[in-house]
Structures are given as structure tokens and as C-alpha cells.
Amino acid sequence: MSAGGHVLRNRIGPRVGTDLDNLIIPGDYAIDTPINGPGSNTLIVSVRVYDPVGVDRLVFQSAVSLTGDNEFHRFYNGTIWSAWVETDTSGGSGFTNLAMSRDSDSVTIESDTGDDAEIPPADTNNAGVMTADMFDKLAGIEAGAEVNIGTDLAIGTHDDVSLEIESSTGNDIVLPAATLVAGTNKAGLFTSAEKTKLAGIATGATVYTDEMAQDAVGGILDNGTVGDIVFTYNDGGPSISAVIENAAVTYAKFQDVTALSVVGRSANTDGVSAAITAASDDLVLRRSGTSIGFGTIVAGGIASNAVTTAKILDANVTYAKIQNAVTGMSVVGRAANSAGVNADIDATVDHTVLRRSGTSVGFGAIDLSQNNAITGQLRGSSFPALTGAVVSAGATLATTATIDLVIPMGGTALATGIIAGVDVHCDFAFTIVQWTLLGNASGSLVIDIWKDTYANFPPTVADTITASAKPTISTATKGQSSTLTGWTTSVAVGDILRFNVDSVTTIVAATLILKVTKTS
After folding, report:
1. Which of 60, 69, 123, 380 gives 89 a disulfide partner, CB atoms 3.0 to 4.6 angstroms apart?
2. What angle do CA 56, 60, 65 make, to 5 degrees?
3. How far is Cα 374 from Cα 383, in angstroms, rounded to an integer?
4. CA-CA distance, 433 to 450, in Å (whole number)?
């Protein structure tokens, strides 16, 4: 049998005829074994309620007559029982149906045959209904909890910065030192170091505030000079400004820098100065692009006409540094009779020499008619081994020579043919300008001249150089000509000259003289 979700159980014997289906009281229920009731031949049935902690609460008894139709009922209000109430069940079933209603503070047992009974809340002295508040409070207490158990505290391990407090019934804690965390004071343990600090403060000492410190410093430094620093104190700020006097920072006060360097800002930005080092010899400090540093000077770094002659080291302007000549075969100088910029003096004609002529210098021929054209004596050792004289030819200096050919006397008239033993090897180049032929007696003589190279020796008639104007004496003792029509007059170094008598009468000996101009 169940009621209100709780199981009604018979603890001792079988249930009696009382219908308890509608009896709803919080807790577990039990029906006692019937005992003798108030009247004869009656049995008592008791109903008990067990609250959640197992306390037995007897709340209701019913007595049933075994011989008659009467029933007896009574209730226990936690202190006393009510009087037995007799109910006549004759003509009826002999049973009373009970029901229950409740709220958060009480339970009412309702009878369909008599008065209802309200069970009040339990208190410290009387059993009763467990209210909702009592249930919530009881549910929050752990099973096996003890009432008001004392906790003993003791000082545990401690050192100069921490102290442990031990609990006899729970966890221990360690008290940390007092700190200032993120701008907020945190109370805590007074450490030994702080105790030492406190011991050093005299009794009655006054806290030295920032304002007091500022005033003290301001009194010392206000508008005064300490060393090379001028201080100005502003109490309203408060603030202290300091200015280093001009020329007060000595080189010794500078930060040490690397060797061979100056102090400055090499980058094209504001910022901290640093060492600018001269890494190698002959470098200068100059700006290059967006920085300054030691390096070589480019042309753009030298102003026009900035370098004077006195600044150029002697013998240090090389030929390569001089402007290239405008023309070949020239020298650099000043041709005009005035100071000014040098220029090229060109040698445009062969065999000319550089000489002064009037108010200028230039290449040209030497005018031997002028005083001081040549001084001293012309020594033979200074010239090639030539014979002849120095003559003027077309206002140019020409070296002339003669080739003298003596035809040996044979005691008889000269014979036609090659004159043996008189071939001439030419050691210098020349041009034939005249021939002269001298005979030992009056008569006639024609001589031809052949020329060829040393490689083609000997020359032949095919190598003639005289054409039809051969050296000739015609019924006379001499002959001479400088016309040389048709002649090959140019003779090279190494050529061989051979002489041939084309015809001869009467003359038995002769001399042929060739006048030449040396060309090399």
C-alpha cells in the first residue's frame, strides 16, 4: 500500500482493516501490531511516521470493537494524545477514510467521518511536521557532520619572508609578505628586512614627503650654479631645469670613440651622434649622397678654380693628366709672346724645327741669315761622314755631297764597256742634282750609269738611270749639266751604281763627279 509516493510497510504483523491509502504524511510509515483498546473486545492499530533521519514519530491510533460496530480514534500532537473519539459504524462499513493536504509549513489529516487534525511544525521540544525551510537546511548538512567541532591553530614553518599557520581540522595557509602590487598596497607579513628597516628609523620621525624633498632640493639649487650646470627650481611644478654652460663640456667628458674618427651624425636623419671613422689613408670627410663619411673627393666636390698652382705638388702632374693633344706631331706650349693658356704647336712640314721667329715660336726652317741662328763651330763629329758643303736650297737647309769617280789611266785611250773596279755601294739615300765630267785631254767621252739593288747585283744596261742625257764630253776637255732630263735621280740606301763607257775618243783618263743631296 502506498501513499503520496511513500511506501507504507508493516513492521511487525499484518495490516488491520484500516484503509490508509489517503494518509499522506512526509516520511516512511508503519502500522503497529494491534493491542487491546479502550473498550472490551477492542484492538488498537497505531500508525507511525519515520522522518528522513529515522526518528520514530507515533501520530495516530485507531481502536476497533471486535463485537460491536463502534470504532475509537485518537491523535498525538507531539506532546499529548487526544481523547478517544467513539464512532458508530453501524449501518456503515465500519471504516474511516483519511486524506491529507499540506503546504510549506503544515500537514492536515482529513477524516471523512469526523474532524480533521492539523499537524503543527516540529520544534526543539516537540515532534511535528518538517517544514520546507527545515528540509532545505537539513539537506545542506553533509552526512556524518559533527556539531560545533573546535579548530586549533598553530604557528608552523616560518623564515624571514613568510609564516605558515597550521589548522587542526583543515588546510594550512602561508602568510605572504606585504607588497605593493600594480599600484595597490597589499597587507601581509612584516618581514625581518622590514623590521630591520623600521629599527633604523628614530622614534617620532616625520615622514619625508615629496613636497618636502622638492623644497629642500629647490632651496639648494634654486637659480644657482653647481659646477658648470645652472639650475632653476619651479616650486609650482614642481620642476627643476638644468642648463650646461657654454664651453663647459670638456673633451674628457665626451664618450670614448674609436681610433681615427670624428663624432657626428652620418645619416640624413635626426638622431644620436656616433663615431665616423677614417678607415684608410688619404681619405677626407665629405658628403656623398645622403650621408657624410670619409672617402675620396669626386670632381663635383671641388669648386671651379679652387686648386691653385701653389697647391699642386711639384713633379706630380703626369703626362696622362695633361689634356690630350688636338693634333698629332705637336708639342704643348705658348706660341704667342704673351702669358696665357698653353696650346698645341704643330709640326706640319717635314724637316722643320721648333724655333723662335719674331714674336712667336713654332716649327719652321732656320734662317741662317739671322744673327744667333747658329753659334759656335760645326764639329765634324756631330754630322755623318759626308763631304761637300752646306748650301741654301730654296730657303731650306740641305746637306750636299759629291761622289767622285776617277777613271784610272791605262796608258792608252779608254775602251768602251764596263769600267772595272769602280762600282759604288751607297751607304745613305740621296738625290742626284748635277753631274760633271773632266777629261785629261780634248776629245769626246760618253758614260752611262746603271743602278740596281744589292739583291739584284750586278746592274745591267737595262738598269740605266740616265735616259738620253748621259754625262758627255763632246770635242772638249769637260762637260756639266744639272738638267738631268729623264734621269732617275733618287737613290736608296744599299743601291749599287755601275759605270759603263758608251764611246770614247782621244781621252785616256777622266773624272766623273756626281753632286747629290743627302735625304737620309
Report:
1. 69
2. 130
3. 15
4. 16
Residue type, 173: I
Residue of 21, 165, 210 lying closest to 100 (CA atoms): 21
Distance CA 194, CA 507 (A): 154
- The whole domain housing 119 covers 2-133
Distance in angstroms (rounded) separating the CA atoms of residues 165 and 161: 14
Residue keyed to cell 726652317:
365
| Global confidence as pTM | 0.30
Helix, strand, coil share (%) of the chain residues, nearest 5: 10, 40, 50
R_g of the chain, CA atoms, integer Å:
78
Q: Looking at 133, 151, 182, which one is the last position of a domain? A: 133
**Are 410 and 351 in a shared domain?**
no
Q: Within 10 A of 152 (CB to CB), how many other CB atoms are there?
A: 8
Nearest to 104 by CA among 78, 139, 130: 130
- For the chain, what is the domain count? 3
The tally of CA atoms less than 13 A away on the side-chain side of residue 206 is: 5
Residue 320 C-alpha cell reads as 696622362
Residue 89: exposed, middle, or buried by beta-carbon count in 10 A (0-12, 13-18, 19+)?
A: middle
In a domain, 170, yes or no: no
What's the CA angle centered on 10, arms 6 and 15, to 5 degrees?
A: 110
E strand intervals along 306-427: 330-333, 343-346, 353-357, 360-364, 390-393, 396-407, 417-418, 424-425
Q: How far apart are the C-alpha atoms of 509 and 439, rounded to whole Å?
A: 6
pLDDT along the chain (520 residues), means of 10: 31 34 42 53 59 54 63 71 69 67 86 85 86 83 74 81 81 79 72 81 77 67 66 72 82 87 92 91 90 87 82 86 86 91 90 89 82 62 49 52 77 78 91 94 94 95 95 95 94 95 90 90
pLDDT of residue 155: 83
In eight-state DSSP terms, residue 202 is P
pLDDT at 26: 44
How many angstroms separate the CA atoms of 116 and 85, rounded? 12
**C-alpha distances in Å from residue 287, one per residue of 279, 294, 299:** 16, 9, 13
Cα–Cα distance measured from residue 66 to residue 418, given in angstroms and rounded to the nearest whole number: 207
Q: Which of 484, 486, 489, 483 is nearest to 467 (CA)?
A: 486
pLDDT score at 448: 96
Please name the residue that has the C-alpha cell 627643476: 240
CA 406 – CA 411 distance, rounded (Å):
15
User: Which CATH number belongs to the domain containing residue 416 in this structure?
Assistant: 2.60.120
What pLDDT is attached to residue 437? 94
Q: If you search the block for the grid coordinates 470493537, which residue do you land on? A: 65
- pLDDT value at position 320? 86
